[in-house]
C-alpha cells in the first residue's frame, strides 16, 4: 500500500493590514476545525521567510492561502492548481506575496523538493490599509476558502 501523502497548508499574510492577512485567518480557522486531519499540517506562514523551505521539504503537497489580486470583486475566491499556480505567480496578476512565495518555491525546486501537487487558494482583497480585521467581503470569503482547501486535500487523497 502506498504511503499517505502529506500536505502542508500555508496561510500567508500580515494580519495588521486588514485583507492582506486573510491567508493567516483561513489557516487559523482550518486549525480550529480540522486540526486532526490526517497527513495535514496547517501553518501560519506570516509574511514568508526562507525558514519555511525546510517545512516545505518535509511535505509531499502544498496549498498556499493568500490575498491575491485577480481583478475579481473583493472576497472572490480562486484556486490555481499545478501549472496554473505557476503561471499565475509568474504572470501580471500576482499574489500580494509573489516575490517571497516565488523565491520559496524556487528554493524547493533547486533542492529537488518542489511539490508535484500544489495549489494557491487566493482571496481578492478589498483593503490593504492598517487594521487587524478583514473587510466584510473578505471575512465572508474565509469559510469559502476553508471549504476549497479541505476539498483539495480530500480530492488529492483519492487520486
Q: Biggest sheet: strands, sense, closure?
A: 5 strands, mixed
CATH topology: Rossmann fold
SS strand fraction: 15-25%
Which radius of gyration do the C-alpha atoms yield? 14 Å
Bulk shape:
globular
InterPro entries: Pept_HybD-like_dom_sf, Peptidase_A31
Pfam families: HycI
Protein name: Peptidase M52
GO molecular function: aspartic-type endopeptidase activity; enzyme activator activity
Structure overview:
The protein is built from 5 helices and 5 strands. It has 159 residues and is α/β, with parallel strands linked by helices. It has a single domain, classed as HybD-like (Rossmann fold, 3-Layer(aba) Sandwich), CATH 3.40.50. The chain has a 5-stranded mixed sheet with strand order 2-1-3-5-4. α1 crosses α5. The longest helix is centred in the C-terminal third of the chain and has 23 residues. 40% of the residues are buried. The mean pLDDT is 89. Keywords: Aspartyl protease, Hydrolase, Protease.
In short:
The protein is of the alpha/beta class. It has helices at 22-34, 52-57, 83-90, 98-110, 136-158, and strands at 7-12, 40-46, 61-67, 77-81, 117-123.
Describe the structure using short key phrases.
about 40% helix, about 20% strand, 5-stranded mixed beta sheet, about 160 residues, alpha/beta, Rossmann fold
Blueprint of the fold:
Elements lengths: L6 E6 L9 H13 L5 E7 L5 H6 L3 E7 L9 E5 L1 H8 L7 H13 L6 E7 L12 H23 L1
Helix pairs in contact: 1-5
Keywords: Aspartyl protease, Hydrolase, Protease
Protein name: Peptidase M52
GO molecular function: aspartic-type endopeptidase activity; enzyme activator activity
Amino acid at each position: 500500500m502506498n504511503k499517505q501523502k502529506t500536505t502542508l497548508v500555508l496561510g500567508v499574510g500580515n494580519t495588521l493590514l486588514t485583507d492582506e492577512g486573510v491567508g493567516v485567518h483561513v489557516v487559523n480557522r482550518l486549525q480550529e476545525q480540522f486540526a486532526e486531519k490526517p497527513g495535514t499540517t496547517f501553518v501560519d506562514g506570516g509574511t514568508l521567510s526562507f525558514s519555511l523551505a525546510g517545512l516545505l521539504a518535509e511535505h509531499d503537497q502544498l496549498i498556499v492561502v493568500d490575498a491575491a489580486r485577480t481583478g475579481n470583486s473583493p472576497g472572490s475566491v480562486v484556486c490555481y492548481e499545478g501549472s496554473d499556480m505557476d503561471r499565475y505567480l509568474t504572470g501580471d496578476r500576482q499574489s500580494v506575496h509573489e516575490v517571497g512565495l516565488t523565491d520559496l518555491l524556487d528554493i524547493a525546486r533547486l533542492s529537488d523538493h518542489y511539490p508535484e501537487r500544489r495549489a494557491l487558494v487566493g482571496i481578492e482583497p478589498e483593503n490593504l490599509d492598517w487594521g487587524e480585521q478583514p473587510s466584510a467581503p473578505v471575512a465572508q470569503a474565509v469559510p469559502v476558502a476553508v471549504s476549497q482547501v479541505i476539498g483539495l486535500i480530500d480530492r488529492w487523497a483519492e487520486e
